Amino acid sequence: MQVIASIDSSSIWKKIFTIILNECTEYQVVFPNGKIDEENPLIGGKEFFTNLPKVSVVSSNMMADSSMFYGELNDEIRKQFFHFLEPTFIGNKSKLWHFSLLKNEKIYLTCSDFSVCLIEDYEDLRFLLESQGLEYNKIGDC
User: Residues near 126 by Cβ (< 8 Å), separated by ≥ 6?
Assistant: First the structure.
């Protein structure tokens, strides 16, 4: 597993995120339960995911009184994920507190606490990243 301690200061984060987002087939996003409150940074994006027609919601163990929204990625959802993460490409905080991107139910990437990213170590994921000029073993150093 590779760790990017702060995606908003990584020189290769945008490239990594874009490659993995386009490769993955499913997503998971965690939000606190309750009403949408614009003052609570943990709910960024909740309204979008709540209003999706094909979303499943289950209790989450990420924090007390929270839910995980999950479903299949499509072009609209990929575009919105890109929008939510776009601030990190220029050194600002993500709009999503905790999310994962999956391919065929296998987690490829998880971001938590707005900026910590874990990239799993799967042979196909290594090949994908390295075919795009990214050296897997050095991802955490950039």
Answer: 136
